[in-house]
Design goal:
transmembrane helix, 8 helices, mainly alpha
Amino acid sequence: MVQQGENVSEVYYELSWSILSTIGIANVLFGLMVAGITSFSPVSIVPIVTSAAGAIANGLCYYAYYDLSNPIKGQAIASAIADVLWMVQEAGLSFYSYIILSRVLRNRQWVIFACLFWIMIVAIMAIRVVIAAVRARRILNESTGEQTIINNLHMGYFVLIALLECVSAFFLLRVFGSAKSTSLKAAIKAGLFRYLMRSTEVRLALLAVLGIMRAITYSFQTASQSATDVASQLDRFAYAMECMFPVMML
């Protein structure tokens, strides 16, 4: 990362943030095309919203941390908004499972899942707000401290997202397993449910792995929003995979 007070030599499209933002924009366009061909629904809106949030957040990251000709207050505001939008992108993917389960779970199962889901969502939001506040304060104070605090907060943040995906996967697979056992009565091929179960396992397992991977790699972060060593580059790779994930939901 370029230190505050230095002239910025990188232009936007020389940095990975621009590519990640472009991936998000492409996902939004693909999502709109698919939704236009089929139909708009809450499930189809999730990948569109999360991709749009990621695209904007990555652009704001450049404004806040790389284009240092901008006013300090503007950088701090951009950083805080970017953190909120990253939360929408990363935690918002879980609403794909939430919307599906809201239609198929009933009574006690739904109450248990909804309580677990919203408890973890509130915890994720609280941690991200603290991260946003700490980063904004660093920019306003023009300091480079508190990186360890930010790293520890991110560890908890990503672990919670991974746990949220595991909980969603557990309930989804139970539903698909139960539906498969009664598929003959409903005159639906069991192969459909095998496909749904396997695709759900792959998608949600990938999100859980990415969450754990980012919790580990981010703990070694030494500079704010910069890939300066192997661990931070692996974190950037994991985030790039996360940006591409909404395509699997379309």
